[in-house]
């Protein structure tokens, strides 16, 4: 009993020491402003989608889905198999040839995450990625296997509360930097704010999300952007409410008068029903768009 208690105590202390380093690592630049952007823009889909998935104990998963976008309808069957660090995805679509993706992920060091994604037959969409986290610093790089390959680099310094970051995309063929983005992010338990500048200083975006309770069940967000070349502003505000463990509602409205709403109802642990709607207040004579998505996991 004493040995088992000692082992449990040692595991507990090791886990606490590992997690104590996590709060010191800053966010990656790709995460700056992601939470408010997801609240006001993600999930409001007007498509009609139905999917059924089955999983096996060996790591194989089969998903059949049907999607209707306007007057176009497509059907697909996707198979996924996971074995250790490798994942194989095969998709057969009614509108395109068979597509295969092989993904290899490995952590060579506790702070280094690497992955390679090979796609066939469109191999030019394949990528190599690496993420490196250290105390007060985070680095990420991505290399595309396109016929005009590009390297995307991003770095951020700071802590989990305040981080400054920069991102650039370098085109090897032309030997030019196509994009240079920079910004900062401030994260607290009850809010998340960020300001980023992209397109070599031609685009500015400010994002903010506020949580009204410690469980983050009620939230409000705002995203405002400005394009200096066109002297255009865009504003989108929204809110979400997690009513219980199975029901979530959220809505957003932008400065053009477009209102979007989404209802998410979790039937089982992985099965979900989503109903989305879109209303243009400047064209009330049009029928509001309604989207329906149902995913069932057997």
Question: How does this model look, in words?
Answer:
This protein is mainly β and 298 residues long. The chain is built from two helices and 19 strands. A hairpin with a 5-residue loop joins β8 (137-144) and β9 (150-158). The protein is globular, with a radius of gyration of 22 Å. The model is unreliable at 1-22 (pLDDT under 50).
**Number of helical runs?**
2
What fold name goes in the CATH topology slot?
Porin
Question: From N to C, what is the helix and strand string?
Answer: HHEEEEEEEEEEEEEEEEEEE
CATH architecture: Beta Barrel
Molecular shape: globular
Determine the mean pLDDT.
87
Instruction: Please give the alpha-carbon distance between the first and last residues.
Output: 41 Å
- Major beta sheet summary: 19 strands, mixed, barrel
Query: Could you give the count of β-strands?
Result: 19
Rg, alpha carbons: 22 Å
Q: What is the domain total for the residues?
A: 1
Low-confidence stretches: 1-22
Structural class: mainly beta
At the first level of CATH, the class is: Mainly Beta
CATH superfamily placement: Porin
Helix content: under 10%
Question: How would you summarize this macromolecular structure in one to three sentences?
Answer:
This protein has 298 residues and is mainly beta. The protein has helices spanning 2-21, 34-41, and strands spanning 48-55, 60-69, 72-83, 86-93, 99-109, 112-120, 127-134, 137-144, 150-158, 162-171, 176-188, 191-198, 203-211, 218-227, 232-242, 247-254, 258-266, 272-280, 289-297.
